[in-house]
Amino acid sequence: MLKWILRRGIIAIFLFLQMKNVYFSIKTNDYMLRDNLDRKILELLQKNARLSFAQIGREVALSPSAVAERVQRLEDAEVITGYITQVNPSKLGWLLSAIIMMSVNRINFQPFIDTLGDYPEMESCTRITGKDCLIMKFHLRDSAHLEEVINKLTLHGDPTTLLILNELKKDNKVTIDK
């Protein structure tokens, strides 16, 4: 009888909270988003990382200090890992952009990874599956600069180069909901 009363009580509390729009935490790997407010804050910051806590607060109906606390918690949990400024490479003289895929054998892999700092023109380097184990994005001055980079890369592996004609979509956003 007591189990029946407890079970009915829990169901009643659950239904009451749902009617009052109280949202339950959703686990994402090892971090738990507290509610839809966390999601909304993340969406707003991904659209414009320069929003003040007061501006975000107006959007989500929280005080600036409550927003700051939530953002700090998201930063501490490494859900938010940083804030960036997007720069137009061509305005800085980097007129050519390329994707370079490269296969590197096991012996040369770590020595190559240790040299990544020697490539200031490299925007990103990602380890991937398949024959080519790395994919890198470079911004370069011209084709002669591209040739210099390719020559340096051939010391470590076998590069395949693709020139970027135009970036059709670039938003650096992560989908919050699945």
Q: What can you see in these coordinates?
A:
- The protein has six helices and six strands.
- Helix content is 40%, strand content 19%.
- It is an alpha+beta fold and 178 residues long.
- The chain is elongated, with a radius of gyration of 24 Å.
- The two termini are 40 Å apart.
- Strand 1 and strand 2 form a beta hairpin.
How are helices and strands ordered from N to C? HEEHHHEHEEHE
Which fold does the CATH topology of the largest domain refer to? Arc Repressor Mutant, subunit A
Strand order of the largest sheet: 4-5-3-6
Mean pLDDT over the residues: 85
Beta content comes to: 15-25%
Highest-level CATH class of the largest domain: Mainly Alpha
Separation, N- and C-terminal Cα atoms? 40 Å
Structural class: alpha+beta
Biggest β-sheet: count, sense, barrel?
Answer: 4 strands, antiparallel
Helix content: 25-40%
Morphology call: elongated
Radius of gyration: 24 Å
Count of all domains: 2
Q: How many helical stretches?
A: 6
What's the number of extended β-strand segments?
6
For this structure, what is the CATH homologous superfamily of the largest domain? Winged helix-like DNA-binding domain superfamily/Winged helix DNA-binding domain
Would you identify the CATH architecture of the largest domain? Orthogonal Bundle
Parts with pLDDT < 50 across at least 5 consecutive residues = 10-28
